[in-house]
Write a structure and sequence with these properties.
Shape: elongated
Radius of gyration: 29 Å
Largest sheet: 6 strands, mixed
Strand content: 5-15%
Distance between the termini: 59 Å
């Protein structure tokens, strides 16, 4: 760096705005993000870079100097840096195992971005990082490119060092090293600069950045609808869909926790048994020993037409994983299928044997009653349903977990207040079976 980071001068700001126009013409659905970044001057940087707070660091020489980039080159660089922010490469890099290679992730992030820019018709400078330049296929995520690069580096230790051009990289907003003189975090509300931050360069808070991502994702999908199928890069369509899709992390964590707590609570109960006398000795009296309960779990599955096979499999996978981790053996797990046509619960051996049928209107009370009538009775009952069913009016003699798979488009009957309820969002783009 040949000088401190500062606000852009008037002529530099005009040059940036010109590049923003070029970038917006190439990818109009990115306009919201292009106007959200806070441009700053970073003399001597030699490139463009971003930080995690949506500040865009630009070498003034590339804007107005003798070696300034052409509008096409500058617009492409601007789109590249904005993509790092939209794809949240900073947070994704933080999720990688330690130690982390900044060089490898910078290359991986560039590869994830540049194949989509090329597919969108953006004219990138010669020599930019692309999947083909790394010897890898198009269309992968940065994490996948990163894993491939790290694996290759294990066989060839000097590989990553040879790929390092000595430049500053794309900045902390790209999940790599911060540029020299990077500004501190903005105020909490993101509306003004903090201490030591030039006016007009406050950046965005995490919440504001999330809103920008969603706005751009909506614009991407609307553009695809208006222009027709195949007009958007596949990776960009995937990003927009995942950004707007309901998070599936929360429900899996909640379902696992609910099943784990129910199984642990049931296992903590103890019974008296005379099969093994107690170690306590009382003259003339044989005392029973305490024996832990062998937990039994019954899973009741709604097989109405509105249930989705892949949603059901995902939920069953979570339940099954928890039961295995809790050492609940298969012989103590029963699976009942509530047939929508007959209303008669049927025992099935596995998820693959479950057949989703038409009819609707399943009464899951029948399945719950059948589970409780079985002998020995279960300690935990897990119901997988779309929620369109009446529920028992009184608590049952087992812990009840209601896993409701829904897209949220209609109001389902309220689950019992004494039961544990986990809402599972239907997988994006999946129709009911």
């Amino acid at each position: 760096m040949s000088g401190p980071v500062r606000a852009l001068s008037g002529i530099e700001l005009d040059a940036f705005r010109a590049l923003r126009v070029v970038a917006g013409e190439s990818m109009p659905y990115f306009l919201h993000a292009l106007f959200a970044v806070s441009p700053v001057a970073a003399p001597g940087l030699g490139t463009f870079a971003v930080d995690a707070h949506w500040r865009l660091y630009m070498d003034p020489d590339l804007l107005i100097g003798p070696a300034r980039w052409s509008p096409v080159e500058g617009g492409a660089a601007l789109l590249h840096e904005v993509n790092h922010l939209l794809r949240d490469h900073a947070e994704r890099a933080d999720a990688l195992p330690i130690p982390r290679s900044h060089i490898a992730f910078n290359l991986a992030g560039d590869a994830e971005i540049n194949d989509d820019l090329i597919a969108a018709g953006v004219r990138l400078p010669e020599g930019v990082v692309t999947p083909s330049a790394l010897g890898l296929p198009d269309g992968l995520l940065a994490e996948q490119y990163y894993a491939a690069l790290r694996k290759a580096a294990e066989a060839h230790p000097d590989l990553l060092a040879g790929m390092d051009d000595g430049g500053p990289g794309c900045g902390s907003g790209a999940g790599t090293s911060a540029v020299a003189g990077e500004l501190p975090a903005p105020q909490i509300d993101g509306n003004g600069p903090g201490a030591g931050v030039p006016d007009g360069t406050g950046g965005l808070s995490a919440a504001a950045a999330g809103m920008v991502r969603r706005a751009v994702a909506v614009a991407v999908q609307e553009y695809g609808v208006s222009k027709g199928r195949g007009t958007l890069p596949a990776g960009l369509e995937r990003w927009a869909a995942s950004t707007l899709a309901p998070s599936t992390v929360a429900w899996t964590r909640l379902l696992r926790a609910a099943v784990r707590r129910a199984v642990s609570a049931a296992a903590s109960r103890t019974d008296y048994t005379y099969l093994r006398p107690s170690r306590r000795r009382v003259a003339g009296v044989v005392l029973p020993a305490m024996r832990g309960r062998q937990v039994r779990v019954t899973i009741v599955v709604d097989t109405s037409a509105s249930m989705g096979a892949e949603d059901l499999a995902a939920a069953m996978g979570e339940v099954g994983g928890v039961l295995r981790a809790g050492q609940v053996s298969r012989d103590r797990v029963r699976l009942l299928s509530c047939d929508a046509e007959t209303g008669v619960p049927q025992k099935v051996a596995s998820v693959a044997a479950i057949k989703l049928v038409g009819g609707g209107g399943t009464d899951m009370r029948v399945g719950i009653d059948a589970a409780m009538a079985d002998r020995p009775a279960p300690d935990v009952v897990v119901v997988l349903t779309d929620g369109y069913t009446p529920w028992p009016g009184q608590p049952i003699d087992a812990r009840l977990i209601c896993a409701v798979i829904t897209d949220g488009s209609a109001q389902c009957p309220q689950t019992p207040s004494w039961a544990t309820t986990v809402t599972i969002p239907r997988l994006p783009g999946r129709d009911a079976a």
